[in-house]
Amino acid sequence: MSFVTDAFRTRLQATFTGSTSGTSPEWVDDLEQGTDAGFFGPGSATWSVHGGNQTIVAGVRALLVQALHPGALAGVADHSRYREDPFGRLAGTIRWIYTVTHGDTATARAGSEWVLRLHERVRGQYVDGHGIGRPYTANDPDLARWVHLAFTDAFLRTAQRWGEPIPGGADAYVREWAIAGRLMRVEDAPETEAALRAQMDGYLDRGELAVTPRTREVLRFIKNPPLAQMLRPGYRAIYQGAVSTLDPRHRSLLGVRTPSIGPVELPVDRATGLVLGGISSVLGAQTGSERAALARIARLEREATGEQGIGAA
């Protein structure tokens, strides 16, 4: 059984972090360095929401929602290697999220600037929801806002469904994670749950979302990614869990549905929760980036106490 567990752990870590050695990638260990606690810190809504394995469901959900914006989708389809290296792109996104979440402020800023520089060459043309051809760049404020909204909403909804109670509630998380939006030059990032809903509804109301053949191609890929055989049954539950949390209007646009018997939808919460529990038992309940951040904060506290002691002496 130990061999099976170790193999499963290695597969999971390779999928989510890009590390094939079975150990934490170097960027996680580097989060122990730094000169402050970071933008959030222990006890924050952000650490709570990003600390549970429901973030795996959130990642799938965010990709589904992002695919509804033709401009955001064009950047992925035209410039990423998601077909050839889907988990390389996933690992890069995870790295940015947890660097901002658990790194010190300088590291979070530097990580965001690095992503922005990568985005500078992501540009092209797309047809919007009204059938009008438009130019795009990945750093366009409107496209950046949609990506930020999709991530924020996904992490929030999955935490509300499968996570622990959020310190300060939904508004606290949306307000805190708006910092990440501003680091990515998102204008007017929402700071309340109501504002988050209103901004997302605005894209629907203005007709800016659309499903195209390219959307359906990406959707098929998200539904059946090239996972290791041992991960596929669990992924099906995670995918269905992600679909179940979607805004019904987004679900209708995408043409996806949760399992049902006739008109009655079957509950998927328990199946998804069981899979997440199994992942926690293999990977542990605490992320490597959180452990690194706690080590950094403990070191800073020791250093501060030592300096005070010297001063007092």
Descriptive account of the structure:
The chain has 313 residues and is mainly alpha-helical. Helices cover 65% and strands 4% of the residues. The protein is built from 15 helices and 4 strands. It has helices at residues 2-17, 26-30, 45-51, 55-66, 70-79, 86-102, 105-119, 141-162, 169-183, 193-205, 213-223, 232-244, 248-254, 269-283, 288-312; strands spanning 123-127, 133-137, 260-261, 264-265. Helix 4 (55-66) crosses helix 12 and helix 8 (141-162) runs antiparallel to helix 9 (169-183). The protein is globular, with a radius of gyration of 20 Å. Residues 1-8 have low confidence and may be disordered.
* Structure annotation, total helices: 15
Query: What is Rg?
Result: 20 Å
Proportion in β-strands: under 5%
Structural class: mainly alpha
Query: Which blocks of ≥5 consecutive residues have pLDDT under 50?
Result: 1-8
Please report the distance between the alpha carbons of the first and last residues: 56 Å
The whole-number mean of residue pLDDT values reads: 86
How would you sum up the major sheet? 2 strands, antiparallel
Please, what is the oligomeric state?
Answer: single chain
Quick one: how many beta strands?
4
* Percent range of helical residues: 55-70%
Principal-axis shape: globular
Strand order of the largest sheet: 1-2
Order of helices and strands: HHHHHHHEEHHHHHHEEHH
